[in-house]
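Hi everyone,

Forwarding the result from last night's run.
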Amino acid sequence: MLRDLFWLPAKSDWSDAFSAARKLPAPGAAAKLRELANFNIDFLQTVQIDRALTKIADAARAEANASKPIRLAMLGSSTLGHLAPAIRVAAYRRGLWVEIFEGDYGLYRMELGEAANPESSLKKFAPDVLLLALDAQQATRGAADDAIREMEACWDAAKRNLNCVVIQQTVLQTLPPLLGNNEHQLADSPFTIVARINELLRPAADRAGVLLLALDVFAQQEGVRTWHDTALWHRSKQEVHPRVSHLYGEHVARLLAAIRGRSAKALVLDLDNTLWGGVIGDDGLEGIVLGQGNAVGESFVAFQKYAKALTTRGIVLAVCSKNDEVNALSPFAEHPEMVLRRPDIAAFVANWQDKATNIRAIADQLNLGLDALVFVDDNPFERALVRQELPMVAVPELPEDPADYVATLAAAGYFEATGVTEDDRKRSEQYQANAAREAAKTTATDLPAYLRSLEMKLIWRNFDRVGLTRIVQLINKTNQFNLTTRRYTDADVLAKMEQEANSRALTLQLRLTDRFGDNGIISLLIGELDAEATLWMDTWLMSCRVLGRQVEEATLNLLAAEARAIGAKAIGGIYLPTKKNGMVREHYDRLGFEKTEESADGSSRWRLALAGFAPHPVLMETIEGEQANDGATRPGADLLATH
């Protein structure tokens, strides 16, 4: 049975609210339609929203802050047009605006080949992302290896001719078996070939840097007959049934959000009746329901295990509870069935203030935007309050039975990712170390003493293929301390590295360590050298976790040294304002740059002459990554950080 978007709240008067929204002036209608998209709507309601948005496209684009919309090309061997509205609405639900190119039916090979021609319609569209969807009938015309080779050829053409991110849809298992339970023994049956294609597809996509839309997995969960209707296929070649188009669009939008760095980064947890059954303040440690051999208690244990597992792939955990802090902490320290322990929680807030206020405080403590948070609470009142006061925070609709908590949170897809890096795996440790730094800060007599006590090392290296995944991830998800917020694909970054090899560009990746641990990669810089020997900073971004530690000044010292090494006479700064990067508006001014240009939209250009530049005094050591173990320095070290 199709459960639609069951993790979103229902709205009984949705139709009336939609009719009212359409009568509003365009800006108000755009905001209201986005609100209505965040309810549990079906495919017909999804189409209604899409049609309404099309009529007020400019206002909707502004509501999504889409100065640069995502340009998605859809190519495939089946009919895909009916899926476009659902993708647009699911993206809009996330504050993204998507423009879609729909390829002609079955002509995906030709269109990818013709994209080498600047005059082709696909080339002119210039997609950021290409979605390639091959149906089972097409994929099984030969052996499984043949299908994989064809997909690989398409991926290569897309990257070569379009320089875009590629999403490959797995093959939906719509073909009937010929043998039955032991179908695998019949290697040439279409059913077996589809299974083999999907088996081979996953490692092939990983090798090629291609993302997957796992349609085969979704169909297993809901049932292939829900996703596919043979009669509809014969009539209109629609492999995916319109009734699940809103689910299809939801999964595509999750990938687009992950590509743009818009997936959630932290899970904020209530305690009573969320992590355990009962109320710790009333029932006491012995009275709460957790584990203890009963179904309800084991359900809470399973949910805690899922939350802890999320930390292993980079999701940060926080607690937001109406409780006395001593009571709230006691199960973490003393209950034998607790899976989560206090060190697993990066921010722990337990008091009697309203939860919206406390969630704001948690976001500040974690240096994350509110739209990076997911809040889980069993209480409908608290969920409604947070949705009303903080609409940018994701709040799944928890079921009454805690046995379904894990399935609901997993199905909601808030934490969709395009991959996992080593820094992701260490993120929970990094936040714990950050808490230790803050504790040390309170014991220091002054800021210099505190910074000196950290024993910081800024370890740098140029961009490389080893760090490529993490570099692209940071470029696409960093919003606040990001001077230009330009987004790049793997191919874009590799192109910058090639420019650097020819001394026409400079790339830097910076890692910060201290006595509490490794902060991971905390800053990326890309500069391009122009004909007048000015190194223009195309990208300068930094993690907000390391603000206030003189990292900006140390980075400029390094940048100046490396810029001189490639012949630059000046550094040029560019600031492009967004809704989120106002904190760096005066970044270049604070570092001593001279403003040379300012536009009406708030963007600005800056210049720093290297001839008269004196390094900023900072309390950290700066060393090149390959030489970090022996402490050796390199030419130009006179411009680097000093103690």
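The longest helix spans residues 144-162.

Cheers,
N.
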